[in-house]
Amino acid sequence: MTSPAALPRERVVSARTAVFVVFALAGVAFASWASRIADAKSGLDLTAGQLGATLFAMSAGSLIAMPSTGRIAGRIGVVNTIRIGMLIGVVGFATVGAGVDLAQSRLVVGAGLFLIGSGIGVWDVAMNLEGASVERLLGQTVMPQFHAAFSGGTVASALVGSAMSWAQVPLLPHLLGSALFVTVGGFWAMRTFLPRAVEDADADEAQHDGRMIGSPDHAALDQTSQPGSRGATSGGAGSERSAWLEPRTLLIGLVTLVAAFTEGTANDWLAVAFVEGHDLPAWAGVLGFATFLSFMTIGRLLGTRWLDTYGRVPVLRATFALAVLGSVLVIFGAPWMAFIGAAIWGVGVSLGFPVGMSASADDPARAGARMSVVATIGYLAFIAGPPALGFLGDHVGVLRSLLAVGTMALLVQVILEHVREPDRDTTTAEPAAARDVR
Questions:
Q1: Coil, strand, or helix at residue 228?
Q2: What is the band of 199 on the pLDDT scale with cuts at 50, 70, 90?
Q3: Is there a domain that residue 99 lies in?
Q4: Total domain count for the chain?
Q5: Is residue 214, in this structure, part of any structural domain at all?
Q6: Are 134 and 19 contacting, i.e. CB atoms less than 8 angstroms apart?
Q7: Average pLDDT for 9-31
Q8: Is 60 exceeded by the pLDDT of residue 312?
Q9: How far apart are CA 239 and CA 370, in angstroms?
Q10: Model confidence at 383: pLDDT above 80
């Protein structure tokens, strides 16, 4: 098996570039649908509650697919796992477009959203696993930059969606064309992902060296992560079950859930809130959404330096506080203030999810199982969020329902300590592979 230490730095940098591309394409795919939600709501003549219930199908697809993704990636590799997710997504986008434009059916749209959620969920976990491997080999924080690429993809796609909405282009050609574009681009980019043997060797080396990088209680909890236990490195059933019993993993998942809720609420409802709450045209609502995405991207690009300088916990305390401020400006401000609020909200939610992914992968030997658990918990926000916000929207209006964002962002402050970086001397305890590829 190839050793991570034997991999040239240039090869790791090429893999990092490929991961950037795949994250960006995932953002393009997601925002293709998110930017047309208001048009779909209008086309199907849905209430806020009905829209929330329909969006639930996408979240359900992700939640069902994600828990097994770590195991699947361990068996068939990250590249093949992402390919499967992309192909499922193509079918889903085509189904959603046909459901809105041709069938005029919530049932068909719901089925398509379920497929999109399943495909993107599998894709999401697998690309984060690849990103965590690259981050370890580089020996520096890069996960927020990968998520910035995702955000950048959503910005570009949202702007395209705004133009499509303004030009009244039907959803089917828009969504299907976008899905085919990202699938072809993704298949091309993944040619330079890390060799699978290197990823496996990295995890095996972590087991052999006894590098339990997480919190001190991990050793007692990781009954399946002893040297020689292949299940721990491949995301096998045993390791996945034990990961669900680890307190730190579950709490990291809870932080990720709040981050996903504050981000996902904007993805699903911000454009609608601008249109219905501030009486703006649909294209202006999409621009408000694009403003949010643009500043979330900026936050993720700048966030790597913040995290390396100040650490995960202080940075997340500050950014979650910004999310509260931004959501308040969107809700209670004039339309021009709402755009400022969307920008602040975007910076505020920029780092929660990528930090959760990095924290779940602190121990490379357990990254697959733990990341599947954390991602699954995080995506519970997408299960509960759309119907909950839809229910509130039917009673208090979509704009006022966004108060739930500030509430969640305040409550999460009490558990942020659990995402703190491992305590280690970087001159002695840094992974050997990371030092060798510099």
A1: coil
A2: low
A3: yes
A4: 1
A5: no
A6: yes
A7: 92
A8: yes
A9: 9
A10: no
With respect to residue 178, please indicate whether it lies within any of the assigned structural domains.
Answer: yes
Question: For position 285, what pLDDT does the model report?
Answer: 85
Residue partners of 396: CB distance under 8 A and separation at least 6: none
Residue 118 lies in a domain: yes
Tens digit of each residue's pLDDT (9 = 90 or more) over 260-275: 888 878 877 788 888 8
* Residue among 258, 293, 272, 287 at smallest CA distance from 404: 258
Q: Which domain holds residue 264?
A: 4-195+233-422
Structure tokens given for 173: 């050609």
Alpha-carbon dihedral angle through residues 410, 348, 263, 401, given to the nearest 10 degrees: 50
Task: Report pLDDT digits (tens) over 91-118.
Answer: 999 999 999 999 889 999 999 999 999 9
Q: b/e string for 174-206 if b means 16 or more Cβ within 10 A?
A: bbbbbbeebbebbeebbeebbebebbbbbbbbb
Report residue 72 as tokens.
């699947």
Does this model's pTM top 0.90? My answer is no
Output the DSSP codes for 56-85.
HHHHHHHHHHGGGHHHHHHHH-HHHHHHHH
Tokens standing for residue 334: 């004039």
25-29, 226-230, 290-294: segment of lowest average pLDDT: 226-230
Q: Which amino acid is at 313?
A: V
Q: Amino acid letter at 403?
A: L
The dihedral over CA atoms of 126, 83, 200, 197, expressed in degrees to the nearest 10, equals -150
**CATH number of the CATH domain containing 317:** 1.20.1250.20
State the DSSP string of 158-214: HHHHHHHHHTT--HHHHHHHHHHHHHHHHHHHGGGSPPHHHHHHHHHHHHHHT---S
